[in-house]
Amino acid sequence: MVLVGVPTPEMRIELAAAGRVRPGRSTQVVLVRRLAFPERDFPVLIDLYLEGRLPLEKFVSETIALDAIEDAFAKMERGEVLRSVVTLP
Questions:
Q1: pLDDT over threshold 90, residue 2
Q2: 63, 65, 70: which is closest to 85 by C-alpha?
């Protein structure tokens, strides 16, 4: 089983014991933090977006003004949004 992402402290996962408790099987939690290298990664990501292979709009929950940023952080902490994009006037 592989889980992708970083959960909030309140999140819980339930696993059925059947099929998990056998010799040679284990459940592990691994947090991996990979550094991004903008000079290498950004051109690739831009090309993927321009080719229509990276739908960035699906990663944006809302677009907000700069003066709504505190509310956006509160929504993120409550798990109501994934990512807010700040627009400037």
A1: no
A2: 63
- 50: which 2 tokens? 């321009």
Scanning the structure block, which residue is given the tokens 């902490």? 77
6's CB contacts (< 8 A; 6+ apart) are: 31
* Alpha-carbon span 78 to 84, nearest angstrom: 13
Instruction: Judge whether 83 and 64 are in contact, CB under 8 Å.
Output: no
Structure tokens at 70: 């505190």
Beta-sheet strands, E only, within 8-89? 62-65, 84-87
Q: List, for residues 40-84, the tens digit of each pLDDT value.
A: 888 998 999 999 999 988 888 899 999 999 999 899 889 898 888
> For residues 89 and 67, is the Cβ–Cβ distance under 8 A?
no
The pLDDT of residue 82: 84
Q: Radius of gyration of the chain from Cα atoms? A: 19
